[in-house]
Structure formats: structure tokens, C-alpha cells
Design a protein that fits this description.
This protein has about 170 residues and is mainly α. It is about 70% helix and about 0% strand.
Amino acid sequence: MERSAVMSGRRSPPLPDYNISTSTLAFDQHFTTNATGILLLAEIVCGMLVWILVGGTDYFHVSALCWVMFVAVSCWILTLCLFVIYLTGAHKRAPHVPWTTLSLCLNCSAAALYLVAAVVDSVSVNQAIRGRHNYNCWAASAFFAFVTTLCYAGSSYLSYRAWKFTEDVQ
């Protein structure tokens, strides 16, 4: 009883005043209107269509389509992360990371992997019966895989130009 009387007489230190209404990351609304942002959005949408169209079928019976799913989902996740980083301006908060080199490597490797996946996907369409669900989905996914390859190739070109510019500036 005596101890509680002593404890209640102590003053606790004042709590620090945190301003939780502001964020350190800002939304860059102009990012989605430039060529890089538009291509990243197209890669996300078309890449998502590829893995949804393949994933909605019995693709696991065709081992080549497992490769297509791996490439589609992996590139989609990496592209989505890069999009969020650029959209929130987090790349400006970490200037020690070579973002232009990272974007160049991601886009070039994704373009090469997607080109292989698109060819594999289009060749695998012949293993389905024409007019059936698998055939239609695999044909559509092959089309979107080639569109996604073109988007990654365009992003690779823009990333190369940005990388070359930052290399010339330094």
C-alpha cells in the first residue's frame, strides 16, 4: 500500500510530440504521366494479364508454361516494387543506391526473360485443343507476353538513356 502511494507521487516524463499526420514519403503525381511511369504501368497490367491467363488454366501439365509463370510473376513483383519506389519518391531518400543502373539491369533482364517466355508461351499454345479454354487463355497470354516484352524493351531504352546521362554528368 505504501509503495503505491510513492509511485503515484512521481511525475512521468512528458511524452514527445509526434506529428503523425505527415509522411516522409511523398506521392509523385507526375510520375505516372511521363514515359517511364506509363511503361511501368503497362508492364504491371500486361504482366498481370499474362500470369492470370496462364494461371487460370491447367498450365502445370505443360512444364514450359511453369517457366512462363515463373518469369511473369517474378518480373511482375519486381516491377511493382520498382513502381512503388518511384511513385513514393523513396529513390530520392536513398541516393547511395544506383537507381538508374538498377532500373537498367531490371528492365534489360526482364525484356530478355520475357522474350524467351513469350516464345515458349506461343509454342505451347499448340499443345492445347483449339477453341477450348486452355487454348484461348494461352493464346491471349502469348500475345500479352509479347506486348510486355515490348514494354520492357522500351523501358530498357529509357533506362539506358538515363544511365548514360548520369554517367556523362559524373
